[in-house]
Prior knowledge:
Number of strands: 6
Distance between the termini: 59 Å
Helix content: 10-25%
Radius of gyration: 15 Å
Low-confidence stretches: 5-9
Largest sheet: 3 strands, antiparallel
Amino acid sequence: MKSAMLGISTSAAEVTNISRHGFWMLLGDEELFLPFDEFPWFKAASVAAITEVEWPSPEHLYWPVLDVDLSVASIRHPERFPLKSRI
């Protein structure tokens, strides 16, 4: 007997909490913290702008309101990506 094909994946990137130090994101079953010191593009952003995030591929995130693209690897290992925007 063959199993039926699974439906479309419904997982999405989700901002789960925002504090004055940064915010937490849920990517599937992985939760990541983005500190504002490491990701300064978000520090002055509104809650609405931070929570409107797209996850177009497993290793890429995009915030359309802020026009910010990030590699998931840069969130997991910010020390490997030392260049930051000057704000």
